[in-house]
Amino acid sequence: MRLKEFLENAAYLYLTDEKFQPVATSAGIRWDELPQFDSVNIIREYLVLRETRPHEVALDSCRRNARFLELCDLNLTEIPLDAQVLSYNFREHLLVHRYERLAETLAKNPENGKNLLREFEDAKASGVDYAAIGDLLPDALLNLNESVKTNTAKITLQGFEQLSDMIGGFNPGRLIIVTGETGFGKTNLGINLALSAAKTMRVAYANMEMVYDDIARRVMAILTGTPYSKLYSGGLDQNTLQVALKPVGQRFSITNGRTLSVPEIESWLRLLKRQQDIELAVIDYDQKLELPFSRHIPEWKSVQQAIIKLEDAAKELGISVLVLSQLNRDGEISASHRATFTAHTVLHFCEHETLGPIIQAKKNRHGKKGKAVTVKYDEECSRIYEDEVVAIESKKTPARKTLKGPYFEGQHGI
Q: Beta strand pairing status for 252-254 and 356-364?
């Protein structure tokens, strides 16, 4: 959809639905800064009238100029009602429009190309948020000291304290990938971690694997420690379940098993952040995501972009996002090994030849390298308990070159 068509749809919603107006504002649509399309000019007229008149009166005054909207082939489903998704789509259309206009201008005035390109780059750069390090560090130290006082510098999951310490905490703004081979128990680990987290925080679980009844049975087995053989013979009563459920309460929200797109997940997480102030989200799992890949956008690239967007959501919402991911026969992530590039931590859930089941830190930006947590894995009820932290030998890598010079020898306190 071109920018003109996009704005015609957005203008129609803006005029006919007052609830859409704050969404458009939050998305960064500034009508006075947009090209002089008919739809944009009508909204500008409407906004002037709204300064002194109510919505109905302003709308009626603009209606004669808005007749073009009745003749447009409107597709309102193209306009997302989530401010963040709308913002992304709007910026994409605006950028394409600017490129098109730039190309036209350059074709007409090639001798002025250098100045035009500089102006275009400056306009793009204006959207980048940046700050001087001298301004950042004092506030960062205050925030750090405050988090130490409130015991939130390293977010710890009850029952997985050693794992939390090993990776530097399940902290806000971080993306964690959990890998595992088919059928080994990634979902079991994801649910165990989520239930542990739900004892002290609110959790969102994007379940794209099972219908409600199936995942509810698995959660019941984990919470109560009831073997599946007993569960399926009617051996669990309501009182036992309620006692086990009490520490979790209403702090665990889960989807119904349907495949979801990344924008849908982002919107859902924003909703739960507003309503419940969630702190952890689990995505189960990467290959189930509804992705827009084609011959122009291969699957690996779509998955990589999806993981980047989920990391952006973690940063924006101040939550920790944990993505479950399946490995192929070569030990690489099936969809895209490049997906690990953006992750802060990559955990591998596997069977060690001598230690048994372990959760190994393959990548650990905020924690201890070469470590793993051994676990007790009770497959009878899908329960996973951590045991101890152990060192794991890895293949030797070439030694790093030692940097020389006064700045790397401590002479300047660096």
A: unpaired
Element (H, E) at 85: helix 83-108
List, for residues 64-81, the tens digit of each pLDDT value: 665 545 545 555 666 777
Q: Using alpha carbons, select from 21, 87, 72, 70 the residue that is nearest to residue 50.
A: 21
| Torsion of Cα atoms, 22 then 25 then 31 then 32, to 10° | 120
What's the rounded Cα separation, in Å, for the pair 397 and 290?
37
Phi, psi of 154 (to 5 degrees): -135, 105
CA 46/CA 60 separation, integer angstroms: 10
CB of 280 within 8 A of CB of 203?
yes
Phi, psi of 365 (to 5 degrees): -65, -30
Q: What's the whole-number average pLDDT of the chain?
A: 80
Q: In sequence order, what are the residues at sequence separation of 6 or more whose Cβ sits closer than 8 angstroms to the Cβ of residue 231?
A: 217, 220, 221, 381
Query: 0.90 exceeded by the pTM?
Result: no
Residue 376 to residues 224, 277, 381, Cα–Cα distance (Å):
16, 32, 12
Tell me the pLDDT band of 325, cut-offs 50, 70 and 90: confident
The answer to whether residue 377 scores a pLDDT higher than 80 is: yes
